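Table S2 (continued). Query chain:
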Amino acid sequence: MSAAIFARQDGVWLNEPQRWTAQGDSLEIITDKATDFWQKTHYGFRRDSGHFLGFRTAEAFTAELRVQGNFQELYDQAGIMVRIDAEHWIKAGIEFSDGRAMLSSVLTVGQSDWATAPYAHDASDFRMRVTVADGVVRLQTSTDGKTWPLVRLAPFPKAQSYLVGPMACTPERAGLQVKFTGFSLKPPLGKDLHDLS
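Corresponding output:
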């Protein structure tokens, strides 16, 4: 796919933000107030109001994305999302929680889970990679686009195609500015689980 993927016409907004611009391979958004993706667990509520720009995939793929943002308020978050529908998706990236930026992923199959870990690198500039194949999702992160340690490996519903792309939410406020670049969508890499290249 073209390097200028954010300028393509095949991206589909879910909850398009009021303020966004796309130029070349760069997408910049400013989040709207009280935006979130979550289904039921612990809190009981259902929210499907986060910002997501999805690009249609094949049944197996690898996607990568660079994310730059200043995460400061509780639950500020941005990263990558793979979605079938409102109750079948995964999102992963940086989320501000417990007073610091955390590496975060939420897998939702009817209900949401949430896994976090302290992020020891520069949370204002990071990369995410997601591979979906054969009913499995593999999430990786990178600081430099060269080394990709594992974030998560999990079962994921099989589908003929998915939507994948940048995601951002601010459940407690508005105004998080996020820049997404370097988005790529390719056939699945098929690398060994411990091959971090």
